[in-house]
Design the sequence.
């Protein structure tokens, strides 16, 4: 897992560098390049390797171990079809292209314009049950209605009594392929 201080040091060094469409270097980057840089460092990859864009961001983040949704204290990336931004685990928002180049501050991943969010859990802070995946640009089916409360269910019926063996059944202990003998004379 990454060290937040190392990530913040690089972002602060890049703060104020220009917005460069398709850029992916310490000299300047666009929004996707910055999100790529942050997610790369957070997943122990080379900072300027493995660049993605808003069109393939979902699959790139999944490949890096991100989960769907948001979580407090996690690295969160939000995006739509044309812009992306990041909120660091300590709540610091970072972006590129919001009134200039790389900057610390702004709306980060939680801007209302972002319809998609993914997060990278901080070790030990992952929720017990991850939400079900949601396909980006697809309509999700409506959730099923809540079922009955198990506490309101009637008790199960008592077990049925054991039935007596049928008259033509083999006596207990007799091999299954052996027929019962003739009735004993009185």
Sequence:
């Amino acid at each position: 897992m990454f060290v937040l201080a190392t990530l913040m040091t690089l972002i602060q060094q890049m703060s104020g560098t220009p917005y460069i469409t398709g850029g992916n270097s310490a000299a300047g980057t666009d929004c996707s390049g910055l999100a790529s840089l942050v997610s790369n460092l957070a997943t122990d990859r080379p900072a300027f390797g493995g660049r993605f864009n808003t069109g393939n961001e979902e699959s790139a983040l999944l490949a890096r171990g991100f989960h769907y949704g948001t979580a407090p204290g996690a690295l969160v990336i939000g995006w739509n079809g044309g812009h992306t931004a990041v909120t660091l685990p300590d709540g610091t928002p970072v972006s590129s292209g919001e009134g200039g180049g790389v900057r610390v501050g702004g709306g980060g991943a939680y801007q209302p314009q972002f319809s998609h969010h993914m997060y990278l859990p901080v070790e030990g802070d992952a929720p017990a049950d991850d939400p079900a995946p949601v396909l980006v640009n697809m309509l999700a089916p409506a959730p099923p209605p809540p079922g009955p409360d198990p506490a309101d269910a009637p008790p199960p019926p008592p077990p049925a009594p054991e039935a007596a063996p049928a008259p033509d059944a083999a006596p207990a202990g007799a091999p299954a392929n052996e027929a019962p003998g003739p009735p004993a004379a009185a």
Remarks:
- The first strand starts at residue 24 and ends at 25.
- Confidence is low (pLDDT under 50) at residues 124-130.
